[in-house]
Amino acid sequence: MSNRKTIAATASFVGAIALFAAAAVPASAQQQRAPQGWFKVCSKQEDNDICNTQNIVTADSGQLLTAVNLIEIKGKINRKIFQVSVPTGRLIVPGVGLQINGGKTQKIEYAICFPDRCISEVALSDELLASFKKGNQLTLTSVNFQNKPNPINVALTGFSQAYDGPGLQQNELEQRQKTLQDEVQKRQKEFEDKMKAEQEKAKAGN
């Protein structure tokens, strides 16, 4: 049990560095924007080398819809993990459904929920990794508290290059963070302006 807790804590830390968007809250699939693309971040934690190949999908408001993490730990601990982070307000029993190119759905059970997101997790097998490299589109479906499926599509374009390539250097990661944060702030402003305009229109109608 202690090893399991250690691995889960390490994996959660690695997954956390991918979340550049605002805190996740329940959002509908209709709010989906294009994913930020695949990229890899590597770091050293105690006696382990950890690499996380990841992709993030956010809403117009900048809220997290889905974060995908393929984590590889080498060293004192050797483990490969596939994680999906989704907003809270999900039904736990259905887990997260994973489809590649519209094929058979694989259930990924939830491992832990935080105040702002729930994380599902499964071992990253060679077969699953190969299907990612061969596939064109990944569909991840969680079920919200209204019992409605929320499918999120993630293009697999560029996945192989990111997974097999080197991790981002610190300056590259910082630049990416800044670019994503600027984009989130821009989209939040656009979202707020749109909501304000709709409120003014509703008032004028009354």
Give a structural overview.
- With 206 residues, the protein is of the alpha+beta class.
- It has one domain (2-88, 105-125, 158-200).
- 32% of the residues lie in helices and 34% in strands.
- The chain has 4 helices and 10 strands.
- The strands form 2 sheets. It has a 6-stranded antiparallel β-sheet with strand order 1-2-3-4-8-7. Strands 6-5-9-10 form a 4-stranded antiparallel β-sheet, with no helix packed on it.
- Strand 2 (48-58) and strand 3 (64-75) form a beta hairpin.
- The longest helix is centred in the last third of the chain and has 36 residues, at 170-205.
- The chain starts with a helix and ends with a helix.
- The model is unreliable at 1-35 (pLDDT under 50).
Characteristic terms for this protein:
single chain, 206 residues, alpha+beta, six-stranded antiparallel β-sheet, four-stranded antiparallel β-sheet, 4 helices, 34% strand
How would you summarize the topology of this molecule?
Elements: H1 2-16, E1 39-45, E2 48-58, E3 64-75, E4 79-86, E5 96-100, E6 106-108, E7 110-113, E8 118-123, H2 126-134, E9 137-143, E10 149-155, H3 159-164, H4 170-205
Helix-and-strand structural type: alpha+beta
Q: How many structural domains does the protein architecture include?
A: 1
The best one-word shape is globular
Order of helices and strands: HEEEEEEEEHEEHH
Measure the end-to-end span. Answer: 62 Å
* Proportion of helical residues: 25-40%
Largest sheet: 6 strands, antiparallel
Q: Which assembly state applies to the chains in this document?
A: single chain
Strand order of the largest sheet: 1-2-3-4-8-7
**How many β-strand runs?**
10
Share of β-strand residues: 25-35%
Mean pLDDT: 79
Q: Which consecutive residue ranges, at least 5 long each, have pLDDT under 50?
A: 1-35
What is the gyration radius calculated from CA atoms? 18 Å
Tally of DSSP helical segments: 4
